[in-house]
Amino acid sequence: MASETTIDRKLSEIFGEAYHLMGTFETCYEPTNSPEFQANIKKCIGLFEDSTRLVSLCGLFSSNEGFEEVATENLRYFLLPFFLGQLTLKLCNAERKELVEVAEVYYNDFLRRCEDYKLCDKPAAVLVVDNGQSSGDKIQELARMAQDRNAKLKKYQEKKELDDQIKLLKVAMEREEVDDEIKRDFYLKLLKSCVLDAHEELVSISQEKQILEHIAVMRRNEPEHQHKPPKGPAPKPLKPIIITRDAAQKAVYGLGYPSMPTMTVAEFYEQRVAEGIFPDAERMKEVNKNSLMNRVFQDNAAELDKEDEEKEKLVEEDDEEYLARQRAKDEFKDDHRRGYGNRHNRS
Fold it and tell me: Which residues form a coiled coil (predicted)?
């Protein structure tokens, strides 16, 4: 989606631009469905997608690590799928059901990676109690409801405390020189806050999917003459960009979402080439052939080949001067081992 992205930009620059652009949405008073707002959303998504591609290419994350082993500057890249999930839900150019499903993939990918790196605990299994006839079942149901209420209050308090701390750390992060400990504390607290948000978003998505399914059933039951044909061509299906390097990782991280297509780095690069954003690999080879640096390498290689041919010719003709020079070199090497003349500061 990013039309201005170039392949030679640094990952930190692309992520920084997207993060700054996303921050402007909080103070934007334009309608969400306005062309200008939607254009900025698409641009921001494209930048975060390109950041995800570069994270995959660099191999910054490994499933057998903990967050303690991740460099401070790289902690922020854990947020990529979370940000993409948030932005996807703000789009208006596709079917709502499709947007919700794509966002669900992003949030689940974000939580799974945070769990792998011990940034958060796996959610406890929810005990579902059927509507029973006995009083014992009712007591259990009331107890469960009380536990759910207490858990929600605890999460709300934790979220409020995290957000207050994040606001203070954000002020410190805006200074020219920021201590590494402050940066790390900021990113870790931001990740914990986003984990809580992701869980809430998944609950909302689950509820919205039920509503959308109910609406779809009602539409199918309507008379045919009431169906309005869609205006214009159908939009292209969205594909979530998750942090994977190859098809094997794609298969692993795609588990649980068989109906949702995901893209590997190679597939994403091919798409960008087709859109004209990234250069074609074959075309770049042709360009490099005619480059000045390539010509210099070719000239040097030709000179070395010429020297080798001349040496072989002198050996074949038994040139006395050349052979004498070679024998002198061999005798010198025999009498003087390597490093013989380097006696500086040595006894």
Answer: 139-179
